[in-house]
Amino acid sequence: MTDLDTFRTETRAWLEANCPLEMREPVRTEKDTVWGGRDQSYMTPAQKQWMDAMASRGWTVPDWPKEYGGGGLSAAETKVLREEMARIRARNPLNSFGISMLGPALLKYGSEEQKLEHLPKIARGEIRWCQGYSEPNAGSDLASLATSAEDKGDHFLVNGQKVWTSYADKADWIFCLVRTDRTNKHNGISFVLFDMATPGVSTKPILLISGYSPFCETFFDNVKVPKENLVGELNKGWDVAKYLLGHEREMISGMGLGGTGGKNPLVVGALATIGVDHDGKLADPLLRAQIALFEVRAKAFAAQSERFIDELKAGRAHPAQPSMMKYYGTELNKARYELVMAAGGSDELEWESEASNGGREARAWLRTKANSIEGGTSEVQLNIIAKRILELPS
Amino acid sequence: MPLYLNDEQTMLRDTARDFVAEHAPPSHMRSLRDANDATGFSRDLWKQFAEMGFTGILIGENAGGLGLGHVEAGVVLEEIGRNLSPSPFLSTAVAAVEALKGSAQAERWFPGILAGDTVAALAIDEGAKHRPSVSMTAERAGNGFRLTGKKQFVTHGHVADLLIVAARTAGSADDEEGVTLFAVPKDAAGLTATPERLADSSLAARIALDGVEVDADAVIGDVDAGRDPLNRLLRAGRTGAAAEMLGVGGGAMDMTVGYLKERKQFGTLIGSFQALQHRAAHLYSEMEVARAAVLKAQQLLDAGDERADQAVSVAKAMTGLATTLAVQEGVQMHGGIGMTDEYDIGFYMKRGRVLAEMFGDANFHADLLAKAAGY
């Protein structure tokens, strides 16, 4: 047996022993997802047990170094762990922007003190992070951001407003882009970290078409940020921001995968509503054809996601490839939910009923429409692919 | 196993890329077409394929081949696709070899395939659309069988030394059971092959078998159990056609992106127009996703994984969709010259159409996947 085979055998046994059966059920609502943070309340003891078990091995962030709370696994071992988790349909023990976005940026650009201070708390789910990027006048043109950070000797004084800050009202800390030089657009931006409990920080949730408020407006009124919370060099925050955006796009592209393993919820839903004909085929042949052709792309994209991760870990992926993943994955997810709604008919239009689980699919359908806007619109991603991968002229 | 080519596979790709581009570029296909070539490919080139070892990629080392897999065969097929090279590689060295593997017929035909002397053709389709049903009959006669019926879309069928023929030894056309696969030599009495020129200038035969008698040892595998070798043939053929389509679609895309960087209108390069940039970037995305689907299918086939069937259908359907987009965008973005015979982009459109149809189109495979998923 190779070392990897041994690792697989041991991992399989460990997961079997430590993943509660309840944590192998599909995620049904937002409350089934553990985000961590000071205010984390667990829906069930199994959620906490599973999170703690994984965190104790560093497996909430398996490929981070052990000294920062990670599992220290190689790319191949990480892939084995993911495969073994998928095999028993284990839930992700901890989701967070700390893991998917800030962590990779700190590993690359953070000081040793910053890594030791922040990464273990992310790995253990103790601190929940939000992202202060977009502003009312800086959306697709993110580098035109105006939130200012004035040098006051030992600290920056931050003033301004962010928008579309995901879960700002639930987050403990923020990683934030601020302007430290007004004379230079891209080279006048810095990347800072601060506690959302700092005086002068306030948030206001934004009600969306889904009826939910996952995003906030975030206001900074004379917020004092210690100088040691600057990540990377002063005025070089755009490099950190771009690097982090690549990871954000990877994360959002994952939504195109839908549920992995197990029964396909789109198909299960369509069969339940529409039934089958005498040949055992979905009784609406045109919808069946649409679903079947959609599934070709969805399954091919699952392969592409695997390939992308493999190439990324081996340092073989084009640096702009996350833009392709983000573009394709989000457009796919929107298409999936159009089919979910078509399959569900008027049942899925109910917004509040018990049968519709409080309009779960309808709200999820509307939520997907933000996928191709947040983290850089589909059109921005296409611009990036055209310029950086295809090298088309300006 | 990571989902990218390993070092050996990358070396093979580089070798194949250089070799095919040098010996069989699009101009090679064009000159065969212009000469109204009656064979459909160059026999010299087929010999060279053998000398390079390509024809033995899927043949085991104990039988004198390279003992490699579908990833490696696909690497060669992608270059064939990119160069639009007419070649019996897919039907002979990939699909027929997989069908014959492990049967008594392998010993008879593999040496010729390894030497680049033998060409095989696949007599599977009976109607204009690829379907699983088999109507051609094979009645027991003396020591063997008598085959009667018609086949079509048999690429290289008019010059092949060997025809792999699916016929029915029991049951009726749509039955899963009762199919037998035969290796029929070209000189069999009662066999007529009528070559038809297709849109892409390739030659595919309509085959008529009028009481063709073969010995019992012409059976590949077991009588009434021909679905096993037939499915091996189809898995290999579909995956191979998908790999060739990656080359066709990729070649069309590269040509088109290149054109966007040199063609000027309104005093500027047309590649600077966002309307075209977005279409090109979308096409790139579709082709990347198709590439992943193909490599996944090849790896699962090589690993003998039970999920291979599904992955093969995904690969064939996805490359059909992506390549169809690539060739259409190619002609459109080339504008008027894209419609001229003088320019190669139209050849990519024609070849893409033929491969999209071969061994089942995107709709056929989407339907297979839906059935397998219980809807």
TrEMBL record, chain A:
InterPro entries: Acyl-CoA_Oxase/DH_mid-dom, Acyl-CoA_Oxase/DH_mid-dom_sf, AcylCo_DH-like_C, AcylCo_DH/oxidase_C, AcylCoA_DH/ox_N, AcylCoA_DH/ox_N_sf, AcylCoA_DH/oxidase_NM_dom_sf, Mycobact_Acyl-CoA_DH. Its cofactor is FAD. Residues 44-126 form the Acyl-CoA dehydrogenase/oxidase N-terminal domain. Residues 235-390 form the Acyl-CoA dehydrogenase/oxidase C-terminal domain. Coiled coil: none annotated. SUPFAM superfamilies: Acyl-CoA dehydrogenase C-terminal domain-like (SSF47203), Acyl-CoA dehydrogenase NM domain-like (SSF56645). Keywords: FAD, Flavoprotein, Oxidoreductase. Residues 130-223 form the Acyl-CoA oxidase/dehydrogenase middle domain. Pfam families: Acyl-CoA_dh_1 (PF00441), Acyl-CoA_dh_M (PF02770), Acyl-CoA_dh_N (PF02771). Belongs to the acyl-CoA dehydrogenase family. This is Acyl-CoA dehydrogenase. It comes from Sphingomonas corticis. The lineage of its organism: Bacteria, Pseudomonadati, Pseudomonadota, Alphaproteobacteria, Sphingomonadales.
TrEMBL record, chain B:
Residues 134-196 form the Acyl-CoA oxidase/dehydrogenase middle domain. InterPro entries: Acyl-CoA_Oxase/DH_mid-dom (IPR006091), Acyl-CoA_Oxase/DH_mid-dom_sf (IPR046373), AcylCo_DH-like_C (IPR036250), AcylCo_DH/oxidase_C (IPR009075), AcylCoA_DH/ox_N (IPR013786), AcylCoA_DH/ox_N_sf (IPR037069), AcylCoA_DH/oxidase_NM_dom_sf (IPR009100). Keywords: FAD, Flavoprotein, Oxidoreductase. Residues 232-372 form the Acyl-CoA dehydrogenase/oxidase C-terminal domain. Its cofactor is FAD. Residues 6-117 form the Acyl-CoA dehydrogenase/oxidase N-terminal domain. Belongs to the acyl-CoA dehydrogenase family. This is Acyl-CoA dehydrogenase.
